[in-house]
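[Q] Does anyone have a clean structure-token version of this?
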Amino acid sequence: MAAPSAPLSLRAVSVEAMQRLDDEAVRTLGFPRLLLMAQAGCAVADAVAKLHPEPAECVVCCGMGYNGGDGLCAAWHLIRRGYRPRIVLTGRRQDFKGEPAVFARVVEAFQMPWREAVSDEALADIQGWLRSCGVILDALFGIGLNGPVRPPAARLIAMINEARRPVVAIDVPSGLDGNTGAPLGVAVHATVTVTFGAPKRGLLTAQGSSYTGRLLVDGLGMPDWLIHRYATARYGGGQVRQGLPLRHPAVRPRRRAPTTSGRSSPAGGGGGPRLRVTRRT
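[A] Here you go.
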């Protein structure tokens, strides 16, 4: 693992700038989107393994776009590590397009259980999965969300929060505005958020950090100079540092998640309200 870049750890990126960064990486520099998705899935699987080292059942809640594709790729990596993913979709499996469809076919080959959250019966099954699993992956929405969360995703987010299990969010907690950190109606309360390229501005605001949990930043193998070009906003006056807590008076204490012994413990480990930011390339 490469040593972190201290100046970059102080930088954040707007949603619009991140979309331009992504476009330049794919269209100008020639990074295949499938490769970036594979790297994202691996980074998320690494985070799950650190959060819950013992392979267990996990529920991967996927939207139908690129964020859902990252979730499906993470499920594939977790299968290879001995975890037992169950896949939840906000739409129909056959409606995946492009790179997400590739990883949907890969995961299908392992005959994992799937549910499409399009009926009350399916939602009842999903609720049971969420309550009994070891960890939940939130891959419903990324930074492209620009309006209030609607059903069935809104109901899924509520169920994720009600389950009180450890949650790993992909790029941003679903339902959170990537620029302001405000929930768009409802948002996932994550234990860990794995964000890509650079921290999104909304994840570092007082309100946003209360949904983010511990923040891990993965560069997806893109060059630092590219990320520096777009990640220009600075936060915390030097408080956001590699592996150190960013304390903010508005950040709520972490909710407590039940352990296998039936007792409760901090869902993200450690006590007190804090946002930890860690970056890897």
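[Q] Thanks! Anything notable?
[A] The chain has a mean pLDDT of 84.
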